[in-house]
């Protein structure tokens, strides 16, 4: 059973070097700057910079929702904004959500901040919310992100071929997921074929 009250009362999360705090309008300038960075747009496949009004509205309305959670990643040492991380697209019937992360830029990439934040969010999703499955999508050229996701338990389960056209080239997108511990030990129900046996 999904404990969605923990989404509505989204708690801050702590990692060895960062604090994950519920995102909101006060992070607007940093979020807009990161979303406009050409390399961040390439990594996320965003062909256009986000609409500023829509982004502002999202930051103003994200708090208190019981179907998603989004945190700002803040470095503990100097309180600087490092990026944002989210659980989105709650599927209550199937106890699953989608994981998303975007760092502020390449200046903080490759230092393990995303891995730390991801581990905290996955533990929250599987351990506190009671999710069965968390999935994500990542472009195949983003090897650093794929390595980070693998470290925190995500496994590749499929490929969307030629999912992104960027600067005249096609790129595949990987679908990855992590399941609650022991999930694959459960016995699946046999499929109903609809064919009746003669008695």
UniProtKB/TrEMBL annotation:
Pfam families: Acetyltransf_3 (PF13302). SUPFAM superfamilies: Acyl-CoA N-acyltransferases (Nat). The keyword Transferase applies. One of its GO terms (molecular function) is acyltransferase activity, transferring groups other than amino-acyl groups. Residues 29-181 form the N-acetyltransferase domain. It comes from the Bacteria. Residues 1-34 are annotated as: Disordered. This is GNAT family N-acetyltransferase. It comes from Microlunatus elymi. The lineage of its organism: Bacteria, Bacillati, Actinomycetota, Actinomycetes, Propionibacteriales.
């Amino acid at each position: 059973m999904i404990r969605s009250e923990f989404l509505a009362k989204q708690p801050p999360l702590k990692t060895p070097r960062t604090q994950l705090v519920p995102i909101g309008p006060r992070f607007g300038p940093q979020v807009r700057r990161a979303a406009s960075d050409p390399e961040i747009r390439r990594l996320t496949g965003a062909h256009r910079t986000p609409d500023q009004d829509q982004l502002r509205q999202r930051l103003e309305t994200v708090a208190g929702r019981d179907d998603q959670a989004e945190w700002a990643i803040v470095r503990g040492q100097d309180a600087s904004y490092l990026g944002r991380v989210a659980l989105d697209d709650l599927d209550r019937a199937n106890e699953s959500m989608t994981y998303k992360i975007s760092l502020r830029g390449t200046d903080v990439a490759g230092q393990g901040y995303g891995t730390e934040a991801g581990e905290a969010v996955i533990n929250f999703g599987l351990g506190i919310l009671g999710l069965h499955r968390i999935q994500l999508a990542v472009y195949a050229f983003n090897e650093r992100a794929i390595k980070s996701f693998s470290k925190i338990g995500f496994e590749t389960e499929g490929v969307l071929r030629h999912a992104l056209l960027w600067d005249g080239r096609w790129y595949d997108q990987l679908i990855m997921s992590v399941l609650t511990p022991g999930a694959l030990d459960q016995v699946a129900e046999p499929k109903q074929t609809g064919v009746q046996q003669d008695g």
